[in-house]
Design a protein that fits this description.
By secondary structure, the protein is an alpha+beta fold. The chain has 8 helices and 7 strands, in the order ααββαααβαββαββα. It has helices at about 10-15, 20-35, 65-70, 75, 80-85, 105-110, 145-160, 200-210; strands at about 40-45, 55-60, 90-95, 120-125, 130-140, 180, 190. It has a 5-stranded antiparallel beta sheet, with helices on both faces. It has a two-stranded antiparallel sheet with strand order 6-7. The longest helix has 13 residues, at about 145-160. The chain is globular. The model is unreliable at about 170-180 (pLDDT under 50).
Length: about 210
């Protein structure tokens, strides 16, 4: 039987390898992740180089006050976020924290009043291990995210590292946009003038193997 969400690896690899802007790719990543976590709101945020503050690359459903909180107060003070950022462990749902997250400022004063009842933040790192940004997923149903979803999101910690790394140059668009397809076995098809990189194929194959 195919492990949960395995088929998404190839789709996400194609999105990440495209020549679209960071913002366009981030929005499409969120759209795909809805099948993993049926979120009420989600965002992709990138750390501003040389600062602690973040900037949103895509936001689907967070009202402006919550989005500001995630990009400002949250990254300075939220205990769950700071715990995950300083460790190499998996993403933590509210219920996974070693303390009662519902008693924290973020949950009590921001998330619950906005209608969210659970959530998870994925701290994203590049291949050198440096933190580059976060993916936030908030739900209104405590049954989510599931254990399978958290395992899937753990793979995203490195797979999305370049996307949120504002210290790297975005892909250069040459002519019209191209379609890239990478299967879980590593086969690649593209309409682009340049080939799909071996590194991208390696990451997709590695992540697929990890869930097989």
């Amino acid at each position: 039987m195919e492990p949960p969400f395995l088929s998404l690896f190839a789709e996400l690899g194609a999105i990440l390898g495209s020549a679209e802007s960071r913002e366009t790719r981030s929005a499409e990543i969120l759209r795909q992740l809805r099948s993993v976590v049926p979120y009420a709101a989600a965002s992709v945020s990138a750390a501003k180089p040389g600062t602690i503050a973040h900037v949103s690359l895509a936001n689907d459903g967070y009202p402006p006050p919550v989005e500001r909180h995630l990009n400002e107060w949250f990254v300075h003070h939220d205990p769950a976020y700071l715990l995950m950022r300083r460790s190499s462990g998996p993403p933590l749902r509210w219920r996974d924290n070693p303390f009662h997250y519902r008693d924290t400022y973020s949950a009590r004063e921001v998330f619950v009043p906005a209608g969210f009842d659970e959530g998870v933040t994925v701290c994203v790192r590049n291949r050198r291990g440096f933190y580059t940004g976060s993916v936030h997923l908030s739900v209104d149903d405590r049954r989510h995210p599931t254990d399978d979803a958290v395992r899937f999101l753990t793979h995203m910690q490195v797979m999305l590292g370049e996307l949120t790394d504002l210290g790297t140059a975005p892909p250069r668009v040459v002519g019209e946009s191209a379609k890239v397809t990478i299967t879980a076995s590593g086969a690649r098809r593209t309409t682009a003038a340049r080939p799909v990189s071996d590194e991208l194929v390696r990451q997709v194959r590695m992540l697929a193997a990890a869930d097989s």
